[in-house]
Structures are given as C-alpha cells and as structure tokens.
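User: My collaborator sent over this chain with a note saying "see what the structure looks like." That's all I know about it. Can you take a look?
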Amino acid sequence: MRSVLILEDKPDRLEGFRKAVRSLGSEFVIREWSTATSMIAECEEHLENTVLISLDHDLVAEPSAGVDPGTGLHVALHLAGYLPVCPVVIHSSNTDASWSMHNELRFAGWQVERVGPIGDDWISGTWLPTARSLLSARSASVTLRRPADHIERMKRTLLSLEGLAIGDALGEMLSYRCGEAGRRIAERDLVGGPWFHTDDTEMALSIVEVLRLYGFLNQDALARRFAWRFQRDPDRGYGSMTRKQLYELQAGGKWQATAGAAFGGQGSMGNGGAMRVAPLGAYFADNIAQVAGESKASCVVTHTHPEGIAGAIAVAVAAAVAWQQRESSSSSRRRVFFDTVLTHTPPSNVREGIERAAQLPETFSAQDAARVLGNGSLVTSQDTVPFALWCAAKHLDNYPDALATAICGGGDCDTNAAIVGGIVSLAVGHNMLPAVWREARERFPFEKPQERDKRSKT
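Assistant: Without extra context I'll predict from the sequence alone. Here is the result:
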C-alpha cells in the first residue's frame, strides 16, 4: 500500500481528503491525525510506504481532550530534522504560518507545495491535482530499508535508550555528590521527576530516531539530526568542540569536513561517540561484526580519531553481548563479555585499557578501579570506556548497582552512567529498571502518552 498522511482536524475536510485519496487508486491508503502531537509520535511508523504528506496548521482540540493539539509547524519542524522521504503539501489558510512551514521544510530539502483552502471544492479542484502532480514527478528522496524484524530490533533499542537516559540523568544529578551515590541509590534517596537528561541522551536519541525511521545508520541523516536537536535545545551540556561542529553543520557544512577538521585535523578522541552508541549495539545485536561497522559509521560523523572510534566500537559491542548473554547465568559471562569486546576493538589505548579492566578484580571499589582505568575526567574515550565496561561487567545482573558503581567512581559521572545504563539494561530487561525511575525520566519525543502511562506498570 502507498500511504498519504494527513494532518487535519475538521471532519468535513477529512471526508473530502478520503474521497480524493480513493480517486488516486486502490493502492493508496489515507492515514489521519487531528493533533500535531499524535502525528509526531506515530507518523514514522508509516513513512516507509508514504508517498505524500499534507499538513494543516491551525488545530483545535476537543474540549474533553485536555491537551494542546499543537500546530502544523510542529510537525514541519519534526520532519525537517530528517532527510526528505516524500513530497509535502501545506493546506492551511493561515498564510504566515504556511510560509513558516514551507520554509522549514524547503530549507531541509523537502519538496513542498502550498494549496489555499479556498471555496467548497478546493480539495478536489486544487489539492488533488497538486497531489497527482507531485506523485507523478517522483522527486528524489531517501529510501527506507527497515529489516523484516525491525519492530523487535526497536524494542531492544528503546530498552537500551531508556537505560542510558536514566543513567545519564542520575549521573548528572549525583555528580557533585558522587561519593554518596551508592547510599542514595540503595535507599532510593533521590529527588522526584522529571529527571532531565544531558547531551549524552540527546545524541543517543538522534541515533535511535535515524534507526527507527530508516532501518540503517544513514550518516547524512544522523548529522542532520544531531544539528537539528542541538539547534532546538543547545543547553544540554554539549562540549565545546561538539558545539563548534554542530554550529558548522547548521550553517550548511558537511559532516565529513567538520569532523575531520577537529583538533587541527587529528579528529576528536572524546567520549562522545561512545556515550551515545549502546542503542545502536542493541539494534544490530544479532550480528557483532555489523555492530562494529555500524558503530564506527555512527562515530565518525563527529569523532574521527582512532581512539574515539575504538571507544564507540567497544561500547556498541558490549551492548550487543549484554543482549546476547541476557539469559545466561554462567560464571563465564563476564569473560565472554570482555573477550568479545576485545576481539572487535581495534588496537588502541582504549583496547589496552579494556584489557586492564578485564584483569581487574571485581572486588575492587569503584574509586580504586577509577584510579587504575580512568573515570572520564579527561573526557577522552580511552579515559572513559575501560572503566564504564568494568562497571557494567561487574553488575550485568543488577542495573541500580551498576549505575551506583559508575557514579561512585567520579569523573564524567553522567557519561559513565549513560554508557553503563545503556549496556546493563539489555542484560536485565525492562522489569529490572526501577519503575519509579522509569516514570521519573524525561519523556522521549516520539513516545505516545499511553506508552508512558504503561511504563510504571511494567
């Protein structure tokens, strides 16, 4: 089936659109939303087969709904964060808002046309001919190639993302009292939600959103998503070099140039590629070799130094192994975890650090392990990843204890806990993430309201 997505809240208009879409042929199906929030949350599920999108701007919610319906501009801004997948028609009588929507999409590379809803037969007289013209033109767009098991892959990807986001938020909150993290987590002596996340989760969200839509790691789409998220919420704790790169991407720069030029052409060896990558390891968890390749591809969009790349590969592989070993109670699980990571991590200081971590006794305290391995204080991959993997391996069966250990080690607490959370959540599953923590974390933009209601009950 070929889908036409419609944002419209007026019943008479919707009936007109249904009739118009039926006239296009039996292979076309219409999918409708009356609020921007619901369309943003749900439309990506249908984009693989979508051939046309049509957006109104002004929306009025039912009085009983009790929610802000948003506007068509919100949907346009959402779509503008992606590479174009089909043409868009704007069918709003709000001229100023229509041009705002038009510009957001056009500047993002989408093919856009405006149709004024003038007269009683404007849908059949104006909108339908425009739709036919756009459909016949077959403008260039990105092809989605979701694998057959995409839904199952996304379940574990979202599990890792949630584990990462909770760890990120807790690490940020407790970073200035990291020595108390063990007690406060054990006693649940934590502030109420929402627990806001940092750039770690923001960048992980971009990876997840690209995988969710495209079904593969499209580097151009990822670069756009990074820049799009940064532009709309820059105060998430981004590092100075990352901020510089993202500003350049916003200005039209190419990621190949901005990433390669970092630090005088050496590329960044920072821990940014590693902190965001666990959900990618989850998505490709059934194929470790593919995990290594895709994680490198995700990393070089911002971090091209071999150490940065090695750290991203190591974390993604660790996440995949955690998923593969989730039902294992074998005493050899820790050895399998480190052996697999070391097999796929290229020669580097990161790998040497992971070798030390694999030999470090589990009886070590977090502080002692951090003194040997580093704790992210240098914000480099080699100073962060070995300690994070040691924490994860020590507590593959206990998510709260894993986060407590990661934070107690000090240093870059939010990044350490984000990496550990993204890995260990895959080993323990949703039910072992404390329900109150899941409810407290900041909501993801693509979550449906009812999904959030279910979280604390699972």
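A starting point for your reply to your collaborator: The mean pLDDT is 92.
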